[in-house]
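REVIEWER CHECKLIST
Item 1: Sequence provided? yes
Item 2: Single chain? yes
Item 3: Sequence as submitted:
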Amino acid sequence: MKWLTGNTKEILTALNEEAKLTQVDNQKVEEQVRQIIQEVIQNGDQALKAYSKKFDQVTLQDLSISKETIDLAYQRVEIEVIKALEAAKENIVSYHQKQKQHDFMDTEQKGVLRGQLVLPLARVGVYVPGGTAAYPSSVLMNVLPAKIAGVKEIIMVTPPSDEGIPDVILAAAKIAGVDKIFQVGGAQGIAALAYGTETVSKVDKIVGPGNIYVATAKKQVFGTVGIDMIAGPSEIGILADEIANPVYIAADLLSQAEHDTLARAILITNSPNLATQVEKEIVRQLATLPRKQIAEQAIQNHGRIIIVATIEEMFTIMNEIAPEHLEVQLTDPISYLHEIKNAGSIFLGEYASEPVGDYFSGTNHVLPTSGTAKFYSPLGVYDFVKYSQVTYYTKEALADAKDAITILARKEGLEAHARAVECRFN
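Item 4: Structure as written out by the authors:
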């Protein structure tokens, strides 16, 4: 891992320079995705099948996954896995139910009623990645908040393969309550959800992670539909002092490094001794890690150990990084909660290991990355509703407000606005 030392300004400058170097011009991908989206708009299901043959080497007769196929997949999954998914579902539901918001109405002014309606989206699309790894936990994290919000129909798309969709993915979809599943992936899957085809219904919003083609497609269809966020590589930041356990810290850093060779793992500490122990422990743990090649490359290229003098500096730097996952392994970690300004998901204490949030605590693991925690939030129930404002005035109430309204309208040069109010009193 690369070490950074110095004052706060010097360290932040170094991190900003590193961030600039990792920015990639993806104009080629942008154009490829644009062409795929146009092809799907023009040719619908035919385009989806052609791209499945081209990109996935699968010839499809039917894009949809039948209920019978889903039920059989569920039955083939080990009972302990089903039980773990059900337990995770219970925690996710209990946490996200507390995010529900409700309508309100107020009558504070005589003759005036103001309010807000909280309305669920009608139809949502969930993208589930394919490839070498299957993430049933992500199915639960994306689908259950939508169900709690009251979304009427949830459509899942996932890339096809010769071996079929992994049983555990279909089982998780059944447990979460997905309504329809289609075996279509990549940018073409996003295009199908955004614009609809003969088989795939157009949705109101698309959520779920994917590769650069999926992320680019989501960015390009935004505006036609809503999206959750543009997710980058996974990342973890850990704040630790001299009492922290280096074994735990190394394990948690590697838990994110094994996701992707571009994953970021960052330790900030005021203890050079701890930093040295953590680095040694990472080497030891890497030796037996099944995904060693991925994790080792991530640690070497994007792993950072930052040494500062004070805890205050630790928080200043980490708040600027705004990590996707933030662990606070300091003495009395809860007392520092309000020092945290920017983080996707916060884990307090040495036993709140980040994977607890990935799988079981009930907090969502769909999180803002690449510093976007400064203005984005974790996926939640609030992502699957929209708000409509309500206004009611009596004639008497409008009479009281008439002069202020017409003055402002004419100040802005909008005479028709002023007349629309005045005509009610002529």
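Item 5: Key structural point noted by reviewer: The radius of gyration is 25 Å.
Item 6: Recommendation: ____
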